[in-house]
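Help! Submission page says 'invalid entity' but I think these are all valid:
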Amino acid sequence: MIRALFPHPILAAGVFATSVLLSGAFNPPSIALAALLAVLAPQVMRALDLQRVRVRAPLAILQLAGLVAVDVLRSNWAVATIILAGRKRERTSGFIHVPLDLKDRYALAVLAVILTATPGTLWVEYDSASGRLLLHVLDLVDEEAWVHLIKDRYERRLREIFE
Amino acid sequence: MSQTILAWSLLVAQALLVVAMALAAWRVVRGPRAQDRVLGMDTLYLNGMLLLLVFGVRTADTVYFYAALIIGMLGFTATVALAKFLMRGEVIE
Amino acid sequence: MTANLPTWAAVVVGLLILAGAALSLLGAVGLCTFKTFYERVHAPTLGATLGMGLIVIGSILFFTIVEGRFMPRELLIGVFLTVTTPVTLILLARAALFRDRTEPQEKQGAAPPP
């Protein structure tokens, strides 16, 4: 019964919150509209027949979010100094290959968002057959250090959460 | 007092964003390749959206928020479509 | 219109928005000064992550105080941008990589790996 009404509970909650925020008011009409949308909109997803998201460790999500927030701050600072230094500073940028053990599609999507949202690293291409990720790094000093950082800092935690 | 502080910092912030938009537009005109122009367009959209948000704070009017949201969505769709075009459009000649 | 805004709030909101705008400008400067396309892709993320975040927080704080209630509409923009920017940038980088692989360049900074 609950499953029939809410095939994707997280999505329904998201739609509800979005609708309330767009209405800009927390009164009965806007809540009614939001509830209606939260019930109806996720029904569309049935046709797509998506794989269900399975989250193992909810606490680890918060930990990861904090970590990413700190990293975004730090890498913003790093890229800002690079831009300000201009051509005075010697810097090499380049592509690196990172072998990934992650297989879960949602975990990979989250990793792509994290890596691209931190300035200085850009997810370019992922080959699902070999599990190899092509990454562009703005300030490439030590290739091994980057691979180690991504695998140890993000991938391990994402595997805890999703796999 | 609080009025002047806020008004001036918002004005300066808007000026900075307009300069950012001009730089992005320069990249659109300059190129050199199509992907550079698309990236410039994306930055232009982004800074335009932020400018609208600052407008909203300056006038204390929430209508700018909706405009910013729509600009953001249009920018996303446009950039994705153009990136797709770069991948497909020129291959099949 | 902004009469009921205390001085501390005006200073905080002003600083947040100024810092955000400055970061976005820095991103646009990077867009103009970096030499190769793959370096340039990194530049706008400054404005799209921390720059956007600072302006959104400033705006939320401002409207919370002025309207006297907590309605963080701007969070929608924050979430939306955080989800879409990586999509556009990854697509664009892949398109560029594809073009560089298919049509050999006469003068390209660093050749992409196969």
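Support: the input was valid. A stray whitespace character was the problem, and the output above is from the cleaned input. Chain B has a mean pLDDT of 86.
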